[in-house]
């Protein structure tokens, strides 16, 4: 195994663990009953921008595994299939942010910092929507029974999961926007 491969696998493990630590030990700022302003997906986005989609999806998948094996997912699993969707598939899909890596790399080579920022923020939106699309689907199929009386399961899932996606996506966008000079340094170091 060459040095680059070892570095890749090490970073996947470290950043998945960092996402788990942020998830467990940082209290999200609550903006309402379902809106949590949290940047716990940020480590998965960073792996995706640095190494690409496959690495980002691997880190997200590993974060989902950590959720399950540590018991953090215990209250969120109703059935085996639902648990698989919401913890393995949804978390892995955060890594789709890596589809922006080629555009980020081109903009970095041309020293177009505005485009680097725009492409990373677009990646955050892609990864957030991909993750929460799965939560939305699982929400109305598996969690719809908890919708308030008279409210459709689809609307309930849209409100709950859409609010979470908005809060987490905006938090990650804000951090990336504020730390953009550091992002370039991070992406350069391999």
From TrEMBL:
Top-level taxon in the UniProt lineage: Bacteria
Protein's name in the database: Thiamine transporter
Membrane listed as a keyword: yes
Keywords noted in UniProt: Membrane, Transmembrane, Transmembrane helix
Regions that span the bilayer: 7-25, 31-49, 61-81, 87-104, 116-143, 163-187
Record InterPro entries: Thia_Transptr_ThiT
Taxonomic classification: Bacteria, Bacillati, Bacillota, Bacilli, Lactobacillales
């Amino acid at each position: 195994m060459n040095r680059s491969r070892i570095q890749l696998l090490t970073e996947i493990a470290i950043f998945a663990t960092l996402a788990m630590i942020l998830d467990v030990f940082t209290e999200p700022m609550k903006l309402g009953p379902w809106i949590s302003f949290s940047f716990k997906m940020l480590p998965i986005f960073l792996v995706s921008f640095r190494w690409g989609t496959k690495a980002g999806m691997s880190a997200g998948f590993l974060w989902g595994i950590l959720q399950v094996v540590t018991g953090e997912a215990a209250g969120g699993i109703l059935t085996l299939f639902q648990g698989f969707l919401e913890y393995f598939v949804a978390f892995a899909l955060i890594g789709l942010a890596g589809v922006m890596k080629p555009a980020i790399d081109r903009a970095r080579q041309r020293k177009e910092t505005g485009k680097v920022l725009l492409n990373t923020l677009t990646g955050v939106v892609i990864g957030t929507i991909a993750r929460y699309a799965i939560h939305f689907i699982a929400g109305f199929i598996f969690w719809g029974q908890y919708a308030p009386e008279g409210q459709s399961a689809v609307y309930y899932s849209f409100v709950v999961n859409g609010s979470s996606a908005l809060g987490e996506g905006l938090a990650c966008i804000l951090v990336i926007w504020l730390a953009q000079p550091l992002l370039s340094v991070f992406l350069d170091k391999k």
